[in-house]
Amino acid sequence: MGSALRQHRFRRRLSIWLGLNLLMICPLIDAKPQPDISVIANATSHLSALTHHEVRQIYMGGTLSRKYQAVALKAGSPARILFNTKIIGLTEGRIQSYWAQLLFTGRSHPPLEYTSVQDLLDYVATTDNAIGYVPAGLTLPDNVVVVYQR
């Protein structure tokens, strides 16, 4: 009989412990992740939003890349690494390899590259149909709009 009582107490303590842990985790489940990257466009492009597929197509030399001028940060910058992994879905090495093939065959050209976020912002703000990416939460000029966040 002692063993059955111990087992009952253990199960009761375990269920209380699990319930308390679940209550602590529930707010985390409902919380929406904050965006890390904002894809921006010049306001004269009249874009209000882009889909994930459209952003990827613009940056990977697809048909939309003929309509919009993509600009990127230099390889190795934290924002570029985040953009490549979260939005493009490839590592820097894979992207470089991909662009080497496209350049060799003459099918497309990679995005223009800038060394600083401010230079990229200035270019997008002053160039029609320019699209770039910046860390989310950055204060943007009036003539730049966010068209995609992730």
Short description:
This protein has helices at residues 2-30, 52-59, 78-88, 92-105, 117-126; strands spanning 37-42, 69-73, 112-114, 130-135, 144-149. With 150 residues, the chain is of the alpha/beta class.
What would you say this structure looks like, in words?
- It is a single chain.
- 20% of the residues are buried.
- This protein has a five-stranded mixed beta sheet with strand order 3-2-4-1-5, sandwiched between helices.
- It has helices spanning 2-30, 52-59, 78-88, 92-105, 117-126; strands at residues 37-42, 69-73, 112-114, 130-135, 144-149.
- The mean pLDDT is 88.
- It starts with a helix and ends with a strand.
- The protein is elongated, with a radius of gyration of 24 Å.
- The chain has five helices and five strands; from the N terminus they run H-E-H-E-H-H-E-H-E-E.
- Helices cover 48% and strands 17% of the residues.
- It is of the alpha/beta class and 150 residues long.
Keywords:
about 150 residues, alpha/beta, 5-stranded mixed β-sheet, 5 helices, about 50% helix, elongated
> Count of DSSP E strands?
5
Q: Main β-sheet, in a few words?
A: 5 strands, mixed
Tally of alpha and pi helices:
5
Question: Which residues sit in consecutive blocks of at least 5 with pLDDT less than 50?
Answer: none
Overall mean pLDDT: 88
The helix-and-strand class reads: alpha/beta
Strand order of the largest sheet: 3-2-4-1-5
Shape: elongated
Radius of gyration: 24 Å
How big a fraction of the residues is strand? 15-25%
What is the distance, rounded to the nearest whole angstrom, between the alpha carbons of the first and last residues? Answer: 58 Å
**SSE ordering:** HEHEHHEHEE
Relative helix content: 40-55%
Organism: Vibrio rhizosphaerae
Protein name: Phosphate ABC transporter substrate-binding protein
